[in-house]
Amino acid sequence: MKGISLLGATGSIGKQTLDILRIHPKKFKLIAISVGKNIELARKIIAQFQPKLVSVQEKQDYEILLKEFPSSIKFTYGLEGIIEVATHPQAEVLVNAILGSVGLLPTLQAIDAGKTIALANKETLVTAGHLVMEKAKSKNVPILPVDSEHSAIFQSLNGENPKNIERLIITASGGSFRDKTRDQLESVTVQDALNHPNWSMGAKITIDSATMMNKGLEVIEAHWLFNIPYEKIDVVLHRESTIHSLVEFHDSSIIAQLGTPDMRLPIQYALSYPERLPLPAERLNLAKIGSLHFQEMDMDRFRCLRFAYEAGKIGGTMPVVLNAANEVAVAAFLAGKIPFLAIEDWIEQALENHSSIENPSLETILAVDMETRTIAQQFHKL
Length: 382
Ligand SMILES: NC(=O)C1=CN([C@@H]2O[C@H](COP(=O)(O)OP(=O)(O)OC[C@H]3O[C@@H](n4cnc5c(N)ncnc54)[C@H](OP(=O)(O)O)[C@@H]3O)[C@@H](O)[C@H]2O)C=CC1
Ligand SMILES: CC(=O)[C@@H](O)[C@H](O)COP(=O)(O)O
Ligand SMILES: [Mn+2]
Description:
Elements: E1 2-7, H1 12-23, E2 28-34, H2 39-49, E3 53-56, H3 59-68, E4 74-77, H4 78-86, E5 93-96, H5 104-112, E6 116-119, H6 123-139, E7 143-145, H7 148-156, E8 165-172, H8 182-185, H9 190-193, H10 203-211, H11 213-226, E9 233-237, E10 243-249, E11 254-258, H12 264-272, H13 286-289, E12 295-296, H14 303-314, H15 318-334, H16 340-352, H17 362-379
Parallel strand pairs: 1-2, 1-5, 2-3, 3-4, 5-6, 6-7, 8-9
Antiparallel strand pairs: 8-10, 9-12, 10-11
Helix pairs in contact: 4-5, 5-6, 6-11, 6-15, 10-15, 11-14, 14-16, 15-16, 15-17
The structure holds NADPH dihydro-nicotinamide-adenine-dinucleotide phosphate (NDP), 1-deoxy-D-xylulose-5-phosphate and manganese (II) ion.
């Protein structure tokens, strides 16, 4: 029985992770969870799974829950609480499904504590890929991808020699606005943007998918996870999200992983690896699908993807700025404060005003992250 700590239990990935635990109660045991502000859902999760430790975002929610449950369940809050969950001694695996760069510190601490990391939180590798991968290597801790594209690449690489990789091909659905021109993007609403054609996900990543920043973050994530230079990572528009990504080898063979768009599979694979467990999910029926479509990426139409490649290639603190500016801009868009196209303008401005610091320490990364948010908030009068 594997003990599991889960960050972001009330989110899209968090809830699907709990589904996997319900399907395989003899394989996995939920030890500790962190949630944000959704206390209603937290109550239900606690009642069903009886974790040993629960961390909430706000102190007042901690005080409320503390009175409602028996003392056998420990409650905590804030960043310290998240780290306590991430490093719980009875958990073997940490599923990091928290949203945003707040996911970085718990990942680093969990690696230090020797936990296997099932990583959904892409901001961890985008902001500090060099630190995370170096630490994971030195501690001999596996970083197992949960993100569907990276899981597809990971599965395609099973048994292969990484030296034989010629390039990675990451598929992109194109998001909610893939068929719209840039002119048409001027008048789109938050509701329109949240309507992803293939996947049901949290609000922030759904907007990232519509701007193509999600793919940009995934390119940087792939660079660190698989130790592949940016020149060897391509993105192709594939509207069906049936092929989750591909690897091309130096003998011209291409290996891909396919499936219906269901995040429970990559989550389960990260939890069960190297074993493969059965999953009662919808099967892919190729004859029913009939045809699949592929299209070259247009970096002028999807400017955020170009920004991400550029920031990734510059390296240092540039991806930290890319991510922080994106988080602030997407939050402003979701709050109805700025139009859709302003997201990429804000990111472009933040990148232009930053001089990258090479090989940054954790302290530098956290300082640049904070500074980027403060500047964006002051400049745009949020
Ligand atoms: N959804 C998906 O299919 C995929 C997601 N990912 C990545 O996984 C991560 C999570 O995405 P997703 O599940 O969609 O996001 P959601 O918004 O659905 O969930 C985010 C979770 O994080 C919690 N949370 C957010 N901010 C804080 C905070 N400051 N402190 C403590 N908890 C916090 C939320 O708590 P609460 O709701 O209680 O406030 C919630 O549990 C992201 O990095 C995303 O890019 C990667 C691949 C696919
Ligand atoms: C499910 C998942 O991994 C998401 O990151 C998904 O890939 C989003 O799809 P697009 O960014 O391709 O629209
Ligand atoms: Mn993805």
